[in-house]
């Protein structure tokens, strides 16, 4: 059976000086540090950081700017194009474009309260199961495209995390503070044929991730 690896890569840090929840809003670019994270991951996968060169033959990303910019140096390193897959996009969220918290007033507005009643679905955005379904379809497509080799799939924190939760048989609702999906991290799915054999997690740009950067952003 061919052994294939699909690396789920969360994009790098985003330039977001006003601190809005940018969600699916396009036009949010990587910060300078985010661009450095993307370059670091590219170097890591290419073997330039001391690890073995990975056998990457396919790079695909969410259509959002921050994901495309994270994928670009990896594709360049391996002489590939960046494919786009709409199924890798960030989760939809009612609070997109807003700063979210009590202090800024978002949680004090009664108009928002009806979106906060059910954390298990969640009621404020795209259902977790919907995210998992589309992400697994994208992963399957990437696995087929890279069969016997490796693919890099650039997406966003929440879709990556709930997909991992589903694959290991854990519940999908969770405490966001406990997500193991840092900026520019790799959640690597190892397949024997079509069977998932192992999941590994690594942070090639971990030293570039500042304090408190594990969860903010998406």
From TrEMBL:
<dbReference type="InterPro" id="IPR029033">
    <property type="entry name" value="His_PPase_superfam"/>
</dbReference>
<dbReference type="Pfam" id="PF00300">
    <property type="entry name" value="His_Phos_1"/>
</dbReference>
<protein>
    <submittedName>
        <fullName>Histidine phosphatase family protein</fullName>
        <ecNumber>3.1.3.-</ecNumber>
    </submittedName>
</protein>
<dbReference type="InterPro" id="IPR050275">
    <property type="entry name" value="PGM_Phosphatase"/>
</dbReference>
<dbReference type="GO" id="GO:0016787">
    <property type="term" value="F:hydrolase activity"/>
</dbReference>
<dbReference type="InterPro" id="IPR013078">
    <property type="entry name" value="His_Pase_superF_clade-1"/>
</dbReference>
<keyword id="KW-0378">Hydrolase</keyword>
